[in-house]
């Protein structure tokens, strides 16, 4: 086996300076969770297909505190080949935070980001690379046919439709993390100090020359998605708040709409009062007060409270990830 450097530091990430110019041509970054039976096959396939491009590559596997033996499998692959590098996070931070951790230590001129479940096919990496060589800074893998459950496809389309509306941007549900990105794209993205991390939107936001390449999308190698309905809803709310202030503007519109409706209701009750249909005095005033004040206050305070909560999280300035162990990782 190649020389392997096992480290056990307690490292705090999220504010490090992007690494540049350290020599490798391609870095492959993949977050790992509940994938103990997938890691070896993932590494094998990535090596097989990336080797058709260059032998100057590294594979960075970020274990997001997986409860199974994923980290042990990663360290075993690190021991076999020094080009395989492992990062073990101190707790479960989430997929996009794990991607951020891997990107902070990726040294390649080109960086591939892919999921670990092999739905993102390693044999598409050479196709992405060839397209990038035509002069594109980012080549996004476009899943024209998705091999996901009906629920996941439906929620994804719904999420991106609302996300596009709330952020006034065009979001494509067929594009996720998988793609190849030039060093300057990754460096620009790492300068974003957002506490809420969502890789697809962040890498789109930094701009540069983009291309969308249709690719094949496979079924999961094994197991089921770890995203449940609750986590997907939380992801949607967090990202809508993090990347747009349109919900705040919508609450203003909602307040004016409620106020306008209260005027109409006032006219209705005025007519009823004049015709003698209302016998109890003060009833109209009470109803209008409740409608007008409660409607405006509750709708606006609810959304403002969400934004204040996110500001509070940002002010604390906690790291976006913490590394507990690493192997084959250059400091």
Index terms:
elongated; 331 residues; 10-stranded mixed beta sheet; disordered N terminus; alpha/beta
What this model shows, in words?
The protein is an alpha/beta fold and 331 residues long. Helix content is 46%, strand content 17%. It is built from ten helices and ten strands. It has helices at 39-50, 70-80, 95-105, 125-132, 150-167, 183-190, 199-205, 229-242, 246-274, 283-316; strands at 6-7, 11-13, 26-32, 57-63, 84-89, 110-113, 138-143, 175-182, 210-215, 321-327. Strands 1, 2, 3, 4, 5, 6, 7, 8, 9 and 10 form a ten-stranded mixed beta sheet that branches. Residues 1-12 and 14-22 have low confidence and may be disordered.
User: How large is the share of residues in beta strands?
Assistant: 15-25%
Any low-confidence stretches, pLDDT <50, length ≥5? 1-12, 14-22
Helical coverage, percent range: 40-55%
Please tell me the overall pLDDT: 77
Concise overview:
The protein is of the alpha/beta class. It contains ten helices and ten strands. Residues 1-12 and 14-22 have low confidence and may be disordered.
Topology:
Blueprint (H helix, E strand, L loop, with lengths): L5 E2 L3 E3 L12 E7 L6 H12 L6 E7 L6 H11 L3 E6 L5 H11 L4 E4 L11 H8 L5 E6 L6 H18 L7 E8 H8 L8 H7 L4 E6 L13 H14 L3 H29 L8 H34 L4 E7 L4
Parallel strand pairs: 3-4, 3-6, 4-5, 7-9
Antiparallel strand pairs: 1-10, 2-10, 5-10, 6-8, 7-8
